[in-house]
């Protein structure tokens, strides 16, 4: 019992330090070289008028804040979906939920652009949310018919492909100069985050996180299966709806602002479980959020700095780190079953 | 009259289709009700409906006189807990944590255990004898231990009714006995009502207060263990004896065989044991048994596929049901009677036609003295190897 508590404390401390360290790195590193001293001065003075001040205050800080928040949101969304399907390789990306959101966001962007309007944050989130729910609905229909986790994942990947194909089609034939922007977004990137975005992201993510923690108790019951959960007093219907809405909301805010980002939702919860040696939601939810934040800060740093000044899209980086973890989980489970 | 769970005109099934109708049961505190019946008869469906896991098709279930349809899950959870055949396999959960999940209905918003909760958990772990494995990973203990942990979890919920779906399936004999012993003790001490399905009829006989037989889309029988498994001999009034003796199995209450549709083999109510199909045909071996001494030999002959005759056996002899189930011919004598000459004559006729005779009896007394005559009659056919209960 005491061992476990110590492990949790060390885990949180480790994640805290990792986030702090990566925040500093993200602030310091970039295509424009700046000295540490200079950055410190800019931070303290709050100078936003100079070019360097603008880089720090209007580009790097909003970007790192949104990377951290969205990374956390994405990871928690993955954890919620894994709990929902009792499937360790479920996640918003592999289940096609991110791609569904991407499609509806692209649709609404193009629709608005044609009328000379730019989609605002709330519209983007709303569109993404609807797209997420539509994909989710398909997944739920499939999951009712098949009771096999691999088949479910394959179906999810297929839904993802279909949505991506339609999105690509739309982007190719949409005739607008802003399409370049759209294309960048469709591949996934944290670039171009503004303070107003950060504000909306903070509100949505904080609210969703509050509800996620609020649901941690019934979630722990649900981990024992529906039968036991119901017997423990959980209203399964309401709980499932809440879980779907929450995970869709968390993943759609990510898709709306950064596009689809792969594998974070599976890989990070797994790593956190290994680190904390628990699957209790009350610890998993905050720890996943912190882990996701650190992971996305790291990946975004790599995406920005590796081939600077050229940026690579974030999904390429997260896939490199995330996909091996997924393969590892699958092999591990196969071995468990063989034992 | 302390009825805790009651159903009235209950119909259970899936998707509005009723599978079993008119289920009227009532269970008192401290009573164990066991559901038996063939696979797929609907035992699980009944249990699921009683625990409100699925909606009833018609009729109602009353928990402590309140209609369960209007009770909330959270109300039910403090009065009723479950133990299923299949156990969950959560990651990184210790035995103690699993047991503690039973406190769920009593903890606050974030599921933090109070001192009282912790005490209940510790007590239950002690009672169910899982202290040694309390820190082990739930996924890394044996099936038997796991089921005991799940029982501890269910007891932690402090239920008044405990519903269990085949809790002993997949367990070895040691764990079966252990699980049911703990259950029995808890029922006595905490006055819990238990409703469970069992496949092991021998265990059902030993732990049930009442038994429900589910078959052919209905509650086939509902009564005490004695009523269902009792060996009510139809000749208990001493009339019409002979006509009954002639029939194959009709001296017994062979209800269990009917219930499960057993076509070959016998279920012996007295012992709750199962005998395989008898070898029919002209007896090749004659067995002089008595007092249960020949049971292993009967079974060996059955295994080896040798048709045999047994006699003369009193109807109240320990081995009589087994002989009846396995021997192609049984020469029987009424309970406590001296062996009649007529039976000895029949036995001698059969011995004459047999190639081997075994005698497993070592002591001759008032009642079986005539059998000694048979042993002497057998002469050279008598096999001398030690057989009977001593046989390994």
How would you portray this structure in words?
The complex is a heterodimer of chains A (339) and B (392). Chain A has one domain: ABC transporter involved in vitamin B12 uptake, BtuC (Orthogonal Bundle), CATH 1.10.3470. Helix content of chain A is 79%, strand content 0%. Chain A has helices at residues 2-28, 36-45, 51-85, 97-114, 121-145, 149-173, 179-187, 195-214, 216-222, 226-231, 236-258, 264-276, 281-305, 314-338. The relative contact order of chain A is 0.16. Chain B is an alpha/beta fold. In chain B, the strands form four sheets. In chain B, strands 7-8-9-4-10-11 form a six-stranded mixed sheet, sandwiched between helices. In chain B, strands 1, 2, 3, 5 and 6 form a five-stranded antiparallel sheet that branches. In chain B, helix 4 (115-127) crosses helix 5. The model of chain B is unreliable at 233-252 and 388-392 (pLDDT under 50). At the A-B interface, helix 9 and helix 10 of A face helix 2 and strand 7 of B.
